[in-house]
Design a protein that fits this description.
This protein is of the alpha/beta class. It has one domain: Spore Coat Polysaccharide Biosynthesis Protein SpsA, Chain A (Alpha-Beta Complex). The protein has helices spanning 29-38, 57-65, 78-88, 106-118, 141-150, 160-163, 192-202, 213-222, 240-252, 254-265; strands at residues 3-8, 23-24, 27-28, 45-51, 69-73, 93-98, 124-128, 137-140, 171-175. The chain is globular.
């Protein structure tokens, strides 16, 4: 079984321009994400999944400099980009994260990686209980093939409700241990206040130190005011209308989707 690590990354952000190239204690945000991906064990290949747009060329150069692979895919359809990258690199499964999450959980990425290797019946696994930006997921490539075959959406930047479908797939939600809880709601990079939050965290440790959950816990307990830096930032999510539309699609096309799944899984 071949398991990869896919990082979705683009430089199109408008709320915080070129955010992935911003510095965090001597390394760019995207380099911090790659650094963490390299710390996950059991991974065969790390691939930075970006677009064919010229604005994303700096990310391709960074991937080459960091000695990882890259893939230039669909600019807006994130799921199709992940699908095409996983197929191109012949992955059976992949662990994934978006590049605006430079403190995703390495510990739980290792757990999910081990989980899918031990139980290949799993289609989609995701951790729950960590702040937005720290949870991690694993996807079977064939499950993603099914979704990309049947879905109607092109803009899939927020795609969780398309594959977290227990009525179609074997979905495993892995709750984090209570002792690993982090006392904030968001640890993700969307706006300038988020960047201030991350700078504060990374400047609290040596430049080459890889920050883990206990480090972040201790830091936030020792400096509780840090939680207020970006507490006013609202996390983007699917509208209720869009969520209902997706749910209705899966209900009305349930038998057809299962048929497509059986065809793909039988190969």
């Amino acid at each position: 079984m071949k398991t990869g690590f896919l990082i979705t990354a683009r430089l199109k952000s408008t709320r915080l321009k070129l955010k992935l190239l911003l510095p965090l204690n001597g390394k760019t945000v995207i380099e911090r994400v790659i650094e963490r991906a390299k710390s996950v064990s059991g991974i065969d290949e790390i691939v930075l999944c970006t677009s064919k747009e010229s604005q994303d060329l700096p990310l391709v150069r960074i991937a080459a400099d960091q000695d990882i692979y890259y893939f230039n895919g669909h600019p807006d359809d994130v799921l199709m980009r992940l699908h095409d990258a996983a197929i191109f690199y012949h992955m059976d499964y992949f662990i994934g994260i978006t590049a605006d999450n430079p403190l995703f959980s390495i510990y739980y990425a290792n757990i999910l990686c081990d989980m899918v290797k031990q139980d290949p019946s799993i289609d989609f696994a995701v951790t729950t209980g960590l702040p937005v930006g720290m949870n991690i997921y694993a996807i079977k490539t064939k499950a993603l093939q099914v979704i990309c075959k049947v879905k109607q959406e092109i803009d899939t930047e927020i795609w969780g409700s398309l594959i977290n479908r227990p009525e179609i797939f074997n979905v495993v939600e892995y709750p984090v241990k209570k002792e690993d809880a982090i006392p904030v709601e968001r640890v993700t990079l969307d706006e300038p206040l988020d960047f201030m939050f991350f700078k504060k965290i990374y400047n609290s440790y040596p430049p080459d130190y890889v920050i883990e959950e206990p480090d972040l816990q201790n830091l936030l307990i020792g400096q509780p005011d840090m939680k207020d830096i970006n507490s006013c930032v609202v996390q983007a999510s699917l509208t209720e209308e869009k969520r209902i539309q997706i749910d209705d699609f899966f209900k009305s096309h349930h038998d057809h989707i299962l048929k497509v799944k059986n065809q793909i899984y039988s190969v």
